[in-house]
Specification:
mainly alpha; 10 helices; about 75% helix; membrane; metalloprotease; hydrolase; metallopeptidase activity
Length: about 220
C-alpha cells in the first residue's frame, strides 16, 4: 500500500494503457469461452441489456455515470487514507438516507430531501478530504491491504448479480468473473495511480464494450 498514488504523467498513462490491454485480453478470453459454451448448447441466464433500449441517456449513464459512481463507492476508500475513507462513508451515508427519504416522503418533499442530503454529503466529504489530506494510510489498511483489495473486487462483482434477470446466486456467481477481474485491475489502478485513473480506465472499458453491443445491434 503506497503512502500516495503517483501523480498523472507519462508513466501513469503508460501504466493505464498496459492495464487496459490486460483487461481486453482477459475479457476476450472470457467472452470466447462463454461463446464456445453457448455453441455447445449451454443457455446463459437473461441479462438486463437484452431488454433495454440503448438510448443516449442510458449510454451516458453506462459510459460516464457508472464509472464515476462505482469507483467512488467501491474504490474511493481503497487508498486507506483517513480522508478518503471518511469521504466515502459520508457520500455512502448521504446516498442511503437520500434514497430512503425519496421512498418514504411523497413527491417534491422526497426529491428535495434527496437533493439536500446529496449536497450535505458532498460538503462533508470535501471537508474531510481537506482536513485529512496529509494523513498516510491507516495502520489497519496498511497491514491488511490485500484483503481490502480483494473485498472491493468481490463486492463490485457481487453487485453485478443484479444485472441478471433469472437464476440464483450459486449459478450466477461464476458469471461475474469478468467483473471480479475488472475489479482487481481497477483496484490496482486506483491504489497505484489514483482514483482518476480507475474512473478513466472504467470509462474506457465500458465505452469499448458498449460499442461492441451497439455494433452487434446495428
Amino acid at each position: 500500500m503506497p503512502d500516495r498514488a503517483s501523480r498523472p504523467g507519462p508513466a501513469a498513462f503508460r501504466g493505464l494503457a498496459q492495464l487496459l490491454a490486460l483487461d481486453l485480453l482477459l475479457m476476450a478470453v472470457l467472452i470466447g469461452g462463454m461463446a464456445a459454451l453457448t455453441a455447445l448448447g449451454l443457455r446463459l441466464p437473461g441479462h438486463l441489456l437484452q431488454d433495454l433500449e440503448l438510448s443516449l441517456p442510458l449510454i451516458a449513464l453506462i459510459v460516464v455515470g457508472a464509472p464515476l459512481g462505482e469507483e467512488l463507492v467501491f474504490r474511493g476508500w481503497l487508498s486507506g487514507r483517513p480522508g478518503h475513507v471518511g469521504a466515502s462513508l459520508a457520500i455512502l451515508a448521504a446516498a442511503v438516507l437520500g434514497w430512503a427519504a425519496l421512498l418514504l416522503l411523497p413527491g417534491a418533499r422526497g426529491a428535495f430531501a434527496l437533493l439536500a442530503l446529496a449536497v450535505i454529503g458532498t460538503i462533508a466529504a470535501a471537508i474531510l478530504l481537506w482536513r485529512k489530506r496529509r494523513r498516510p494510510p491507516m495502520a489497519l489498511f496498511a497491514r491488511h491491504a490485500r484483503w481490502f483489495y480483494l473485498f472491493s473486487a468481490l463486492a463490485f462483482a457481487s453487485v453485478h448479480l443484479a444485472n441478471f434477470t433469472e437464476g440464483n446466486a450459486a449459478i450466477l456467481l461464476p458469471l461475474t468473473l469478468p467483473q471480479f477481474l475488472l475489479g482487481l485491475i481497477l483496484g490496482y489502478a486506483r491504489v497505484t495511480f489514483g482514483l482518476w485513473a480507475g474512473i478513466l480506465l472504467h470509462a474506457l472499458h465500458n465505452t469499448l464494450f458498449i460499442s461492441l453491443v451497439l455494433a452487434g445491434a446495428g
